[in-house]
Amino acid sequence: MPAAPRKQCRKPGCNRLSTSAYCEEHARKKEVEVKKQQRDYDKLRGTRTERGYNNRWLKASKLFRAGKVCVMCEAKGIAKLSECTDHIIPHKGDDGLFWDESNWQPLCISCNTSKASSEEGGFGNMRKI
Ligand SMILES: [Zn+2]
Ligand SMILES: [Zn+2]
C-alpha cells in the first residue's frame, strides 16, 4: 500500500513533513491559537455589550431620577436627593423587569445599600425600621 504523500508543514520555517497541512506539533499549536482567538473575540464582544448596556442604563437612570428625592428617606420625612435608581422587584437579570419603569424607584446610596442588605438577609432576618 503506497504511503500518503507527505508535504512540508505549512508553518513558515518548519521543515517537517506531514500528511496533513501542518506537522503534528504545529497542527496542535494552530488549534490552540484558533481557540484562543475565539475566546478573545467572545470576551471582547461580551464587554462591548456590557458597556453598551451600562451606558444605556446610566442614561435611563439619570433621566428617571432627575430632580427626584429618595423615596425611602421621604417616607421617613427626610428630603434627600436620589443618587441611584433601584429596582423595586429585584430583576435578577430579567430584561423585562430591568427596563420596566414602573419597577424603578429613586433612592439614595445609603438607602439602596440598606435595602440590598435587608433583602439578602431574607425572611426571619427582617429588620424593623
Ligand atoms: Zn511544523
Ligand atoms: Zn435615602
Overview of this structure, please?
The protein has 4 helices and 4 strands, in the order ββααβαβα. It has 2 domains: 15-64; 67-123. It has 129 residues and is mostly helical. Helices cover 50% and strands 9% of the residues. The chain is rod-shaped, with a radius of gyration of 28 Å. The strands form 2 sheets. Strands 1-2 form a two-stranded antiparallel sheet. It has a two-stranded antiparallel sheet with strand order 3-4. It binds zinc ion (2 copies). One zinc ion (ZN) is lined by residues 9, 11, 14, 16, 22-23, 25-26. One zinc ion binds at residues 70, 72-73, 80, 107-108, 110-111.
Quickly list its features.
mainly alpha, 4 helices, disordered C terminus, 50% helix
* Ligand identities: zinc ion
Name the average pLDDT: 86
* SSE class: mainly alpha
- Give the overall silhouette: rod-shaped
**Radius of gyration, taken over Cα atoms and rounded to an integer in Å:** 28 Å
Regions with little confidence, pLDDT below 50 for 5+ residues: 122-129
Secondary structure tally: strands: 4
Q: How is the quaternary structure best described? A: single chain
So how many helices? 4
What order do the strands of the largest sheet run in, or round the barrel if closed? 1-2
Kindly give the count of domains.
2
Strand proportion, as a percent range, falls in 5-15%
Distance between the termini: 87 Å
- The helix-strand sequence is EEHHEHEH
- DSSP helix fraction: 40-55%
The major sheet is characterized as: 2 strands, antiparallel
